[in-house]
Amino acid sequence: MTSVLDSILMQNNFSTPEIRAIWSDENKISKQLKVKAALAKVEGELGVIPETAAKKIVEKAKVENFDLLSLQKESAEKRHSLIALIHALQSAVGAEEGEFVHYGVTTQDIVDTSIMLQTKEAYNIIKNHSEKLIRTLAILTKEYRSTIMMGRTHGIHAIPITFGFKLAIWLDELLRNQRRLDQLLDNGVFVGSISGAVGTYAAFAGRGIEIEKLTLSELNLSVPNISWQPSRDRFSEFATALGIYSGTLGKIGRELFTLMKTEINEIHEPFRKGEVGSSTMPQKRNPALIEGLASLTQPVFSDVSLMLQSMLIDGERDAIHWRNEWVVLPEITSYLDAQIVNLTYILSELDVNVEQMRKNLEIQGILPYSERIMFELGKVIGKQTAHELVYQAAMTSIENHEDFIHLLYKNSQISSNFSREEVNSWTIPENNIGESLSKVDHILSQVNI
Hints:
two-stranded antiparallel ribbon; lyase; lyase activity; mainly alpha; Adenylosuccinate lyase; Fumarate_lyase_fam; EC 4.3.2.2
């Protein structure tokens, strides 16, 4: 075992079965054969190769016809990633028709097109799982739309928000990530390549552009404007979109981690009977799922950086940089999909401690309402003057543990203009959430739930 993705014990923490299947050796060979079959079919229909050979190639180009260990052995001997499959397919097709296997293309064409098929498969799974996550979060947002909690800036109590407002911010970010995924299709990221040694179609006798277009149509891939063998920006765009998405999920994981701390105790991740938090402290219910969610953003960010380096191709092609793609694509799609599926489960069974949220509002008494008090006072005595008076009272209250309102009323400008009842009315949490509910409703209107 050389990777957590290969470990039976750990792989489900870092990936999903659906994504792992896509990057299996069997699926890789299957996709390479699919490209070869599509190419042969088109070339046969156009008369570029004999139609009998084309039909035989299509018939034999199925992964169950090949022994992966034999392919691995010859690939190692020849130090070439595809030559073993070419030879094996040629042998399966037969001496005469086998001469037309891999006709006109270069290895890069087959490798690039097949890995793009795998990437598109992974993309479709991620998109579907993302849609489920968005619906799950929208349902939770609607449920806790008006649940009051303390907002925090720089880790310190600020002014009240609702839990639904916090969730709606996450939801809006997820919707942007979903749009970024959609844009990958619009931007023509998922293209194939059937263009020969240096992308000029030189071996196709003037039929190359037509062959590429028809072959890629068979494979449901877009047609590039020109060779992309030395232009790897599409994979970098793909990785960057996934990296931004993972950043969102990592941020959410860190926030959930904070809210589950014992001292805050506002949420708890799902807990199943028999789950063990610690081998030595029996009482522990650790945020294991949340930590797993947050931890995967770090390797995703590293993979994005590695993928960007694959753009530094020398000349018309080299293997120094684009091999990064073979490392990054399985990892980045696996990690992100695991995050999406994990968060969907966490949110679907999240234990929200509404009572504790209310208690936490009271930790600093009415100090968090100093902003509202300042603005209300400012309507009579001026905003800057009010700020100075409220600031001085707040600092003294914090440092000397004195009653904030009592300190305010020591000032005649306040006591002569405002009653205690009036000031107290400004400290009701529900009256201090601004227009947050309207914003929550606006975000929810963008999701069908």
